[in-house]
Amino acid sequence: MRNPFQNDALGKFILRLTVGTLILLHGVFKMLNPGSLEFISKQLAGFNLPAVLAYGVYVGEVIAPLMIILGIFSRLGGLLVFGNMIFALVLAHRSQLFSLTSNGGWALELQGFYLFSGLAILFLGSGKMAIRPD
User: Fold this and answer.
1) For residues 89 and 128, what is the distance between their CA atoms, to the nearest angstrom?
2) Where does the sequence pass through the membrane (predicted)?
């Protein structure tokens, strides 16, 4: 008899919806608050990188999550989220990399969640419940 709780397609779908929706909210916030882009531009300038790279946040936090949610080139979407989080960790959170909160959790739990979830989606793909299953 088949285990009703063993459903890889449903598990991948839930992962895609969770990661995609949660990171998309960050992207929508940045679209509605242009000051966020200025902050990213300043962070990039600190590394002698061109300010135009700040627009990459829209790729990593709007386009990639939509790809993941819909299941259109989800692996590429996962890679873009992973890359976006590498930039976020280096530019804005490097001082917290080895920090814990007062409750003992990693100070970068949310960023770590997005980083490794993007990586998981890269390796897992979209599954069967997608516009373009892989």
Assistant:
1) 32
2) 9-29, 49-69, 76-93, 113-131
